[in-house]
Amino acid sequence: MTDGGSQLRFFHGGGGFCGCTWRRTLGIPHVFVGTPGALWVPAMAERERVIVALPDLNEGATVADWLSQEGLDPVRVCATRTAVDEMLARPFDLLIADFEFAYRDSLYTKARARRPLTPAVVIGEADTVPPNETASAQTMCMARPVERATLLCYVTMALLDGRPMQRSPRKLVQRVDAFVNGVPARILDVSNEGVRLEVPDTRAQALPAYFTVRVAHLGVSVTARRVWTQPSPRASMLYCGGVLTQNRLEAEQAWRSFVDTLSVG
To answer: Could you tell me if 178 and 68 lie in one domain?
Structure first.
């Protein structure tokens, strides 16, 4: 582990991108917690409860510390049975679990029994964890070594997808060409309510709070509100997540038809 607890190096393989900013929109005052690029959390609100089920004590303690610093309420356990007991005892908002715990020991299935749309971040070895876990739209996988910035970005996306406003599952797709405010971009995943994009990272013209997504060859165009951004592994590119807002009924219907026609990537 490097100085400041910024990175874990317990296992070989993995890696990731870093830097993630977001702002939650719960209609209540917000305060900034942590360092630049960290999470935004609501002032004077109940902290979101995160089950951290990792067998390595050092890894689990470090991950829990990162979450606590960002205003979340981590519950650290190192065994599947204890994790199940914690999930049954009190409501929770997110599961972070070791790959073997999640699938070999069926922890994710048991979590869904407690909360059917449980968002989860699954952590495993680089040679066993797929780049995108498509068995469940609420699950994201990441490979060790676990990096703080990457984990917090995944936590951000998982919590946003797990909120009530996310009424339909996210669909990971083959990259679809689109335009964001007239600039060429790519759609990475979609739902009826939102979209994740890869857009050029042009510092001279930052992506505004509200933007237009247009799929030219289908004549689909919708307005979205920016929720989060993070650097893409590709040079000079940026990931962006947005939720659809302020669209006419015809535009919403066209978007949903577009989502229905997309094949899973």
So the answer is: no
Counted domains in the chain: 2
Handedness of CA 67, 69, 73, 75 (dihedral sign): positive
User: For 102, which DSSP code?
Assistant: I
> Residues 72, 144: one domain?
yes
Whole-angstrom CA distances from 19 to 38, 39, 104, 231 are 8, 10, 32, 6
CATH of the domain at 208: 2.40.10.220
Owning domain of residue 231: 171-261
Report the distance separating Cα 172 and Cα 107, nearest Å: 23
Q: Is it true that the peptide bond before 145 is cis, omega within 30 degrees of 0?
A: yes
Same domain, 130 and 222: no
Q: For the chain, 265 residues long, give each residue's pLDDT as a single digit of tens.
A: 333 333 332 322 233 333 343 333 322 223 333 333 334 333 334 578 899 999 999 999 999 999 998 888 999 999 999 999 998 888 888 999 999 999 888 898 888 777 677 788 999 887 766 554 344 556 788 889 999 988 888 888 777 665 544 456 778 887 799 999 999 999 998 988 889 999 988 754 577 888 999 998 889 999 998 878 888 888 888 888 888 887 888 999 999 999 988 876 5
The three-state secondary structure class of 68 is helix
Paired strand residues for 203: none
Contacts of residue 45, Cβ cutoff 8 Å, sequence gap at least 6: 26, 28
Residues 90 and 209 in one domain: no
